[in-house]
């Protein structure tokens, strides 16, 4: 196809998008390999959606180059559209059309031959549990049902690469779990997926993630590697007066942040402190604590160290 | 070749399904031509009759009473008030109780006797005396049509006062009225109404077509599909072409039944001309739709285009009466050309060949409109 190797589906260099001087995406470099789920993790306004829209050719980059499936974007965006699927953040199918009509519309617009069209629609309706909902108006369905319909239409033309923009923000946890199982099925079938999210548990399921903040990539890699290379140790403290302990610890040398989780205080201690448990035990601030123990870091800890005030 | 057709058909069937469920719009498609045809067909009449007038009879003679009856017998005016002074008559006009007042002077009998209009045979004494009219009309001249109707009474013959047959003077010119010899207003109004209603509904429906996708949040999905702008535009207007043809059939069919307006012998020309006009109006609506940011804005723009296109089209006021600049502006609107075309097809038995200038212009407008709309429609969010 081009200089891009067959194993790379997306390559972006120095990607910038400015809206009237505001840099929504600010110098993003990406390399995404085939056959994986790649997640953009970040708060609202961190540039996840803008980045994704530049990758699909919906937005023209102010600076930088994008190559998706070997095609230069936005130049070849129209050719690319046959090869990618896209699920928008807000439900964007027709509420006044039925499930079947929406699917037929999309299948026809992608030019599926009529025999193949019937077959594919039946397949996705079966797979995404829409078979009984064919005559239902899309606008009258629940969040979970709409999400399944949106995914069904996005994969109807069997794209090699699927973009999902906060796909689970409007559904319950049960549907979310189920949805992710379906994503892994797709990956198993050879599809590559790019997904944006602000849920830690979702990001943790991705093969690789990029942590986004203020339009920049703060860290990227496999969640496990990111946790291992976090640059901080996590210590949990139990005891009375956790709010007070937290207030005292914040601002203390060697402490990155502290956040309460129920009856525990989760403290991030800088990595260069050799024995973080002993370090905290000897501190006056932790007087009265009944338990101080080092625990395994999670993705939220990675996120906190990589972004905001925790960033070094 | 398969793929563009497939995409156009996808858009077409989607629009059709949405339209079918939009009861309000669907009702308008039928009700607008129906109601407006009946309303305008009966209501608009440029042959004015029975204008309410007041009479101030200072003379109070047999002649004055006969004269008033003669004036009423023309059916142009109808005496609704009898007043005693000119001041009262002016007040009545100001209050719009009457549109004019008929003032008969004290010396009416002498004036009639000397008037050449009465043809009594009395030799006129002096030039000044014979040139005096017998009575006066005070008219609310603000409405030129009312004023014109009363002005037509100015040279009414008075020989009937003398029980003579009216003086049948030879007219200077002979006027033969083609196409509408009975001078029925409906003959002119009904074909014109096709133009008005098509302009209204076609621009209105399509001006919302693109912006609705944006407003309902479907745009991001739509521009992510491989559909091309021109395919989207074509797919979107096809359902409305059928609607336009249905509306035309309703107006001309009912116009024939209710007002006896002919179809003319040029059915094919009529069909092609109407199709072209529908296309031109739809493409204008699409251009508006690519400019508007919301459906409200689209409606506002439609009204902005609609008013001049109706008022300058020649539907109500003759095109020839407009100043040259206004004529140029009128030429820009498809409605003006269609007004000429449909009256030609239906009333004058003209064909596409005779009206080729309007036909060509309409084709050009349609093609240009589609290109501009497609060009303005960006498959990008920035």
From TrEMBL, chain B:
ABC transmembrane type-2 domain residues: 143-380
Q: What is the name of this protein?
A: Transport permease protein
Alphabetized Pfam families for the sequence: ABC2_membrane_3
Tell me which family the UniProt entry assigns to this protein.
Belongs to the ABC-2 integral membrane protein family.
Localization terms from the record = Cell inner membrane; Cell membrane
> A GO molecular function for this record?
ABC-type transporter activity
* Membrane spanning residue stretches: 24-44, 189-211, 237-258, 270-289, 301-319, 359-377
- What are the GO cellular component annotations? ATP-binding cassette (ABC) transporter complex
Q: Could you tell me which PROSITE patterns the record lists for this protein?
A: ABC_TM2
Give the taxonomic lineage as stored in the record. Bacteria, Pseudomonadati, Pseudomonadota, Alphaproteobacteria, Hyphomicrobiales
Membrane topology for this entry?
Multi-pass membrane protein
> What keyword terms does UniProt attach to this protein?
Cell membrane, Membrane, Transmembrane, Transmembrane helix, Transport
The lineage's top-level taxon is Bacteria
């Amino acid at each position: 196809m081009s200089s891009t190797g067959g194993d790379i589906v997306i390559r972006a260099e120095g990607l910038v998008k400015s809206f009237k001087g505001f840099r929504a995406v600010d110098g993003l470099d990406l390399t995404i390999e085939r056959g994986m789920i790649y997640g953009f993790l970040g708060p609202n306004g961190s540039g996840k959606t803008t980045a994704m829209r530049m990758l699909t050719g919906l937005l023209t980059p102010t600076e930088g180059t994008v190559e998706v499936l070997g095609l230069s974007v936005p130049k070849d965006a129209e050719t690319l559209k046959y090869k990618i699927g896209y699920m928008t953040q807000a439900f964007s199918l027709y509420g006044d059309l039925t499930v079947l009509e929406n699917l037929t519309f999309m299948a026809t617009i992608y030019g599926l031959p009529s025999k193949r069209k019937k077959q594919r629609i039946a397949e996705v309706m079966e797979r995404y549990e829409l078979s009984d909902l064919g005559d239902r108006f899309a606008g009258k369905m629940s969040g979970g049902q709409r999400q399944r319909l949106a995914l069904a239409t996005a994969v109807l033309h069997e794209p090699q690469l699927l973009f999902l923009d906060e796909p689970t923000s409007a559904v319950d946890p049960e549907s979310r779990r189920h949805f992710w199982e379906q994503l892994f099925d797709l990956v198993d079938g050879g599809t590559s997926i790019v997904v944006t999210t602000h849920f830690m548990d979702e990001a943790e399921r991705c093969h690789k993630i990029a942590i986004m903040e203020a339009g920049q990539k703060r860290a990227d890699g496999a969640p496990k590697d990111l946790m291992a290379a976090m640059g901080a140790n996590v210590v949990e403290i139990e005891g009375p007066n956790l709010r007070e302990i937290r207030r005292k610890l914040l601002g203390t040398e060697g402490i990155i942040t502290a956040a309460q989780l129920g009856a525990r205080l989760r403290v991030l201690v800088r990595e260069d402190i050799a024995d973080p448990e002993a370090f905290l035990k000897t501190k006056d601030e932790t007087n009265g604590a009944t338990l101080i123990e080092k625990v395994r870091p999670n993705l939220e800890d990675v996120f906190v160290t990589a972004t905001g005030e925790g960033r070094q | 070749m398969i793929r563009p057709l497939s995409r156009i058909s996808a858009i077409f069937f989607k629009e059709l399904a949405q339209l079918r469920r939009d009861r309000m719009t669907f009702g308008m498609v039928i009700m607008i031509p129906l109601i407006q045809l009946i309303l305008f067909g009966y209501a608009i009449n440029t042959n004015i009759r029975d204008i309410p007038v007041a009479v101030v009879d200072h003379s109070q003679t047999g002649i004055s009473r006969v004269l008033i009856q003669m004036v009423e017998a023309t059916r142009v005016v109808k005496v609704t008030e009898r007043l005693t002074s000119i001041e009262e008559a002016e007040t009545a006009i100001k209050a719009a109780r009457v549109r004019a007042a008929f003032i008969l002077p004290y010396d009416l009998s002498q004036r009639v006797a000397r008037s050449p209009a009465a043809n009594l045979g009395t030799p006129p004494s002096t030039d000044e005396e014979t040139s005096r009219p017998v009575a006066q009309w005070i008219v609310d001249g603000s409405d030129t049509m009312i004023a014109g109707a009363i002005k037509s009474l100015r040279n009414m013959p008075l020989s009937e006062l003398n029980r003579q047959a009216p003086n049948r003077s030879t007219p200077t010119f002979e006027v033969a009225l083609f196409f509408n010899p009975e001078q029925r207003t409906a003959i002119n109004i009904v074909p014109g109404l096709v133009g008005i209603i098509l302009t209204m509904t076609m621009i209105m429906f399509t001006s919302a077509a693109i912006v609705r996708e944006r407003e309902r949040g479907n745009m991001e999905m739509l521009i992510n599909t491989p559909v091309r702008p021109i395919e989207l535009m074509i797919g979107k207007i096809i359902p409305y072409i059928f609607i336009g043809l249905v509306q035309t059939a309703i107006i001309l069919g009912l116009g024939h039944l209710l007002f006896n307006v002919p179809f003319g012998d040029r059915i094919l020309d009529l069909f092609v001309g109407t199709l072209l006009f529908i296309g031109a109006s739809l493409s204008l609506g699409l251009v508006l739709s690519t400019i508007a940011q919301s459906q409200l804005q689209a409606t506002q723009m439609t009204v902005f285009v609609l008013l001049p296109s109706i008022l300058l089209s020649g539907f109500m006021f003759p095109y020839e009466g407009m100043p040259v600049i206004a004529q140029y502006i009128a030429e820009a609107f498809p409605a003006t050309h269609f007004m000429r075309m449909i009256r030609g097809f239906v009333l004058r038995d003209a064909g596409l060949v005779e009206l080729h200038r309007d036909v060509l212009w309409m084709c050009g407008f349609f093609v240009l409109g589609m290109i501009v709309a497609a060009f303005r429609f960006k498959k990008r969010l920035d």
